[in-house]
Each structure stands twice: as structure tokens, then as C-alpha cells.
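Section 5: illustrative case.
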């Protein structure tokens, strides 16, 4: 479930970055403006992927801890 939300986060972030890039690219024709727009979009994508990596790492860590705890709990009898 956590990984699914990370995927949704990536989809919405990528869509937002693409929309912002194309809207700024349509408004400008100068190469400097296009270059600036590409750099800004690249930075936004870098931050997006960094955040997604952190979320995925947290989800994996949680799954490993849960598995270990469940294995220990399975050994007990009431």
C-alpha cells in the first residue's frame, strides 16, 4: 500500500513537472528562457525522485521489520 502511494506521488509529480515545463516553454522563444526552464524542471524532477526514493526506502524498512516481528510472534503459543 505504501509503495502504491509512492507510485501515485510519482505520477502526479511527473505530470505537474511536465505541465509546468510545457507551459513555460510555450511562452518563451529565447534559448536562454528555454534553458532556464529545462534546468528548473530538472531540479524539480531530481527532488521528486529523491522524495520517492525516501518513501520507498521507508516502505521497505517497514515491511522488513513487520516480517521479522511476525516471524517472532509465530513462534509463541498461547
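Designed sequence:
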Amino acid at each position: 500500500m505504501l509503495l502504491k502511494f509512492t507510485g501515485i506521488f510519482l505520477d502526479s509529480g511527473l505530470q505537474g513537472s511536465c505541465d509546468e515545463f510545457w507551459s513555460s516553454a510555450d511562452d518563451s522563444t529565447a534559448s536562454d528562457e528555454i534553458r532556464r526552464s529545462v534546468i528548473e524542471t530538472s531540479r524539480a524532477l531530481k527532488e521528486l525522485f529523491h522524495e520517492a526514493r525516501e518513501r520507498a526506502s521507508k516502505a521497505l524498512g517497514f515491511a522488513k521489520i513487520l516480517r521479522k516481528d511476525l516471524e517472532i510472534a509465530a513462534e509463541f503459543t498461547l
